[in-house]
Amino acid sequence: MSDDALFDVFDQEEPTPVVDIPKNVPVIEQPTKVKESDENGESMSTDKRTWEEEEEDPSDLNSKRTRTEVVNEANAGKFFENVPRMQIHTVETIESCLHEVVLPPNFEYVPLKPAMGPPAKEYRFNLDPFQREAITCLQNNQSVLVSAHTSAGKTVVAEYAVAMALRDKQRVIYTTPIKALSNQKYRELHEEFKDVGLMTGDVTLNPSASCLIMTTEILRSMLYRGSEITREVAWVIFDEIHYLRDKERGVIWEETIILLPDNVHYVFLSATIPNAKQFAEWISFLHNQPCHVVYTDVRPVPLHHYIYPAGADGLHLVVDETGKFREDNFSSAMATLRDVGDAAKGDKRGRRGGFKAETNVFKIVKMIMERNLAPVIVFSFSKKDCETYACATAKLDFNSEEEKRLVEEVFNNAIDLLSDEDKKLPQINTVLPLLKKGVGIHHSGLLPIIKETIEILFGEGLIKALFATETFSMGLNMPARTVLFTTPRKFDGKELRWITSGEYIQMSGRAGRRGKDERGIVVLIIDERMSPTTAKEIVKGKADPLNSAFKLTYNMVLNLLRVEGINPEFMLERSFYQFQHFSSIPALYDKLKTCEQQYEAIKIDNEEEVARYYKLKKKLELVQDQMSVMMNEPKYLLPFLQPGRLVTVRCNDLNFDWCVVLNFQRKPGEKPIYIVDILAHLTLESALQKLTAEIQPCSYVERGEMKAIPIQHTLIRDISAVRVYLPDDLRPKEARQGVLKCVQDLKRQYPGGLPLLDPVKDMGIKSSEMISCVKQYVVLQTRINEHPLTNNFQLKYIYEQYERKANIENQVNEAKNELKKAQSLLQIGDLKRYKRVLRRLGYCNSADVIDLKGRVACEIDTGDELVTTELLFNGVFNDLTVSQACALLSCFVFQEKANEMPKLPPELSGPLRTLQETARRVARVSIESKIDMVEERYVDGFKPFMMEVIKAWVDGQSFANICKMTTIFEGSIVRCIRRLEELLRQMCCAAKAIGNSELEAKFTEGTQKIKRDIVFAASLYL
Fold first, then answer.
1. For the domain 87-296, what is the CATH superfamily, name and number?
2. Which residue from 108, 134, 173, 850 has the highest number of Cβ atoms inside 10 Å of its Cβ?
């Protein structure tokens, strides 16, 4: 075939394949190589000061360190040096729970003593074994981590700790991750104990009470400020401690636990976590006290897990109440899914993907009601989807007339708190008809008063079908009989992904009401996009481990610099993040020892000669790789990809010997990628596989089979000058094996290797880089041919043996680096960079003593502390009205996405530009200080979508009017305004710190103006 004829074929939209290739076989993709950035790259100047004027040298960031830094670094990491391993004792219990106790070094194990005298609290029901074990720990005045499934009854342990503290005239703090949960706990505990207070930032009730309910952020703030309350505390209860792994807020839990004094005892309540013992080891080591782990994976109400293939007619039980996975039922469900998918593809009406999700949800909810399996919680991962499904389900009516009357009565009593104007809000008017039918919605976009009303109605059994996002599964103790997942996919802020098995366990745990249901029902809707492996991992998977999400923040660093006796290194070395790496040291030592033993075990004769030969071969391979990249340019390569051309292929670690080109075609997309169909010699086993990813190459001296596979053109390595004849039809195996015989004959004909195309002379690549590579290739090939090992009949064996030893040597070096990293203080480099930013911006001096700007930034933790402080000191707020200042501050507290950028009036766009310019300057200083940051992304993090809305609210407009100004959910607006009120209070403290009474009065006025109407309506739980 001539080159012109070849390109005529190529230009056709669908080239005729020489051989049939299964359409479901994926193409072997070339792995993307990510270019690493150079940390010592050029830095961008942001102001008149240069690096030479700073304490640091730009070429050596470790030079000219202050005395404080040198002392702190010398001590850093000493906290974990030469520490004996924790002692762990297993306490004998009955089978349904595991009880272990972690003791610090040099502590003697003393068995727990049974309680003497009457218990602090009596229960009207029999306690579960795990509850009895945990309470025994409390009675012995020892800390305990209770790890159990959702709705298992962990709160019983917390209540007993409160009762015991109040009996003994001690102070106890109960912390929760969210304000709504704090309000609920306050209501529950206040009804029983009376001497209970609440502190959430929004609300403060009875702050002198013996039992204080608060969010973890409040406790952290009190510890940094040295509050008297924290010195009197005997017990701290951390509810939902698994929040510690939250990427954004998890660090707050670690800070709080580290800052609490050693004489405090703890109750940690958590969902099931597989590494509960490791967390207890950290607590024991950190505060030098025993910490018990009481773990149970027994559910009070067993669960049945079902799969519903989208568009099918029935449910398939895949996990029974004993936890056994039903493989046969699972296979049947996946087969049904394939059948439904095939039927949908052949539907003449063109219905893609089978049946609509709404139809599936409606069908299942209706079936649940018919089979008397209500109430049901329907989890969806989109607020809009929750509302869509609820409205579709509201065609049905689940409540009796008496229940409708009760719903209306509860609802009217709740909204009586509101003004007449707020009672007419669209969300309030539209939700009541749904509630009367027994259908509810629960997501963050709802008004708080509506959410609380729905929670109360659901708790009273007046809502039969609740459509909720996953936040409903966090903390709120509201189980149902059935849980339904509308989809197994969720958007996590970065990508649309499958839910993890841990997330599935957390949400499915809401199924099954204790004392009411024999078993709970969980239904997962899946579609044809989900592989059987993924479905099995979700349904049958394990809980997510509790891994630290510790990260430095400027507020943390400044507060630690301000407090005497501690420093940021103190926080780093005591973090759970550091401890988890420290605990990996024994395993790393074992790994290093094993690798070293393997290395020493390999003995090679004349090793120096073998090493020289090995290095020459590796250099030659490197040059070949460089040549391949240039030869694989389409303009050079395509003219030589005629049918019958012999090429070699490399994909990852797989090397395919001479393959035969069949044809090629361009892959759609911006970047030119060509798919080349080749005949490759595969092992007999892999030749039977349908997936390209499972194929294995076979050498021509072994028995194998020629098979057609598609590859990307970039995987071609060598291009032979030889072509072989191809039969017209390659579908018969005999025809393909005939081609194999031709290739084998050619290999015998050229024992020194098949002749290759010359990249310069034959392919016309005359760049200086290619000419240089060709020269290097010739020199290296000559040296290899002249090497004494070249003619050694054992060369292949010797080479493979040395290559194995060289790979083990690399593993030894990697293990040493991992060990060195584990032994060093992690994030110390980040700390240096953070301090450098603070010094350059004037928050602290070279001796790590914080200045006025630093003390002001310590007051702010609701928004970006650096940018707010810069705006404050630049006098930006001095020239703004109260409404303008509040509007500008809204950019710091609103974090959600909006449809489009608003067109702001001049009185708002001007301050916004100032904010963005200030943020750019902070970003540039950060980047120059070697902090990994993208300037545009940082600036875009200050979202102006609520500026007009906030200005209108401060100017006195009604909530109904401001809702018409935006498409953002009402609940999101309320949350933004409440966070803004929190930020304004902090700005008042900041203005007071710099002695600006006018500015303090302005922020105080802003706080008073936004605190009104439905936005700050009292919680129904209070």
1. P-loop containing nucleotide triphosphate hydrolases (3.40.50.300)
2. 134
User: Do 636 and 630 form a contact (C-beta atoms < 8 A)?
Assistant: yes
Residue ranges per structural domain of the chain? 87-296, 303-341+358-540, 642-757, 862-1016
- DSSP state string for 412-465: HHHHTTS-TTGGG-HHHHHHHHHHHTTEEEE-TTS-HHHHHHHHHHHHTT--SE
- The pLDDT, as a whole number, for residue 799 is 84
State CA 332 to chain mean position distance: 33
pLDDT at 352 over 80: no
Rounded average pLDDT over 613-629: 87
Give the torsion through C-alpha atoms of 424, 430, 435, 441, to 10 deg: -110
At residue 287, the pLDDT reads 93
Residue 342: predicted pLDDT: 58
Query: Model-level pTM?
Result: 0.74
d(CA 337, CA 529): 10
Nearby residues of 995 by Cβ (< 8 Å), 6 or more positions away: none
Distance CA 72, CA 572 (A): 11
Spell out the SS3 assignment of 833-900: HHHHHHHHCCCECCCCCECHHHHHHHCCCCCCHHHHHHHHHCCCHHHCCHHHHHHHHHHHHCCCCCCC
Orientation angle between helical segments 768-786 and 607-631, nearest 10 degrees:
150
Among 1.10.3380.30, 3.40.50.1970, 3.40.630.30, 1.10.357.160, name the CATH number for the domain at 862-1016: 1.10.3380.30
Nearest Cα to Cα of residue 988 among 978, 979, 998 = 998
Q: ∠260-265-269 over CA atoms, to 5°? A: 95
Share of the chain above pLDDT 90, in %: 37
| Highest mean pLDDT out of 109-113, 645-649, 749-753 | 645-649
At the top level of CATH, which class does the domain 642-757 belong to?
mainly beta
- What gap in Å lies between CA 459 and CA 267, rounded to an integer? 27
- Other CB atoms within 10 Å distance of the CB of residue 481: 23
Exposed, middle or buried, 702 (CB in 10 Å: 0-12/13-18/19+)? exposed
Measure the CA–CA gap between 210 and 165, rounded to whole angstroms.
8
- Cβ(529)–Cβ(487) below 8 Å: no
Domain 303-341+358-540, second-level architecture? 3-Layer(aba) Sandwich (3.40)
Instruction: Give pLDDT, residue 138.
Output: 94
Mean pLDDT, residues 49-59:
36
pLDDT of residue 358: 58
Residue-level pLDDT at 341: 58
Which H or E run includes 718?
strand 716-723
pLDDT, mean of residues 315-331: 86
